[in-house]
């Protein structure tokens, strides 16, 4: 654990909250100080849920540490049962409460409650949010699932989608529809939308679809070992992966499966004339392991991009991502430090980033377009519209997700090229804002123009760009402009220059072109 401005994952108890919030009829009693209640905002503000998470906090304060905090925890458990009447409760401690060692699991066992009480042992100082969600769901399934006969028709469970999951709501709908077209019914979706009573019915299905390995793999493995239910290993994100997923399902049920692909548009659109702008674009991919692996395949094999960087922040997925990177001739970046990610992106200077909300901010600082393809994300990536990642409609959504930053980038480049045109120059203002005129940045206090060789703001303490060189630099496409600036400044330092003129810019270009 460390202090940071941004973090890819919260502590494990946030993962437990994601499972509890996704389910119905389950309540989470969290032994935590008053300040740890901030996590509610993740669900009500970012995911825009219309109800608070089903979590009760003991909210002990500093003055309580000298008294009996164990009694405070037991009272919170009883109050939660009496007030919310859940089918089951899960109990645990936050990272702060773990330090006082009150043992919520042991305390809850002595209370004699009439409903199942599932204790969570989540190591707050060595593991993180995704592990917390995976472990919590596993413990719920382990404690509640009951052996039973298989359903008469072929059915499956969909495992892994949680609250705060990246497009999990829509992925469930898309894959449920796809499986229905294949003649397979859904037994239970869990944790998202499931009750503890639904969890008991999991073993009735013929197999499990593991939609989110980060948050459902431990439960899937346990169901396979204990109840003989195979689970899918392919996550159906992208055209090729969805087709492979359908084939895998067919192998599990011993039946050849086919599906109507008429609504699939990505393959043709990515080959069509208006998409040739995409070919060969250099992309850096970073996020959770599942989405990174899926998007690496989509980027290279389905969109014609060149993948120049791969990495993930969740160390549980480090091994498969390292193996994947080797297949792409790359070394995987496994880190949860966003500053390391920014340095890696800056070093390879890609033309687009596929990442999380944090890579979006990095892209803004570096002037590189970014498409968000993985949690953690902000409120705009929980859209009101139907916007899956999985299945064939998910592939269509992904095409739009990847092409829009580059198309907008092309528009920006064209506007830059024509910035001296009477309609598009800086002083004209946006053409669609009638009558709006910006004050020219090139006017001095008296209204006159600055001298042509007026020095611009220096990029750092040592290098000064002259106005003619700065103007020429702006003609370079924005997605490589940052690299051109850095190379030119490095060339100037190497030559002992403290000013960059138009000649210096051309000399640097020739130098790096050799």
Description:
The protein has 18 helices and 14 strands. The two termini are 46 Å apart. By secondary structure, it is of the alpha/beta class. A five-stranded parallel sheet has the order 10-9-8-11-12, sandwiched between helices. It has a four-stranded parallel sheet with strand order 2-1-3-4, with helices on both faces. The protein has helices at 12-22, 40-46, 69-84, 104-109, 129-144, 168-181, 196-200, 213-227, 239-253, 266-271, 289-302, 318-327, 338-348, 357-366, 391-417, 467-473, 478-494, 502-513, and strands at 26-31, 55-57, 88-93, 117-119, 155-159, 185-190, 207-210, 282-287, 306-312, 333-334, 352-355, 370-372, 464-465, 499-500. It has four domains: 12-128, Nitrogenase molybdenum iron protein domain (Rossmann fold, 3-Layer(aba) Sandwich); 145-253, 3-Layer(aba) Sandwich (Rossmann fold), CATH 3.40.50; 266-406, Rossmann fold; 448-511, Proto-chlorophyllide reductase 57 kD subunit B (Helicase, Ruva Protein, domain 3, Orthogonal Bundle).
Please supply descriptive tags for the structure shown above.
alpha/beta, Rossmann fold, 4 domains, 14 strands
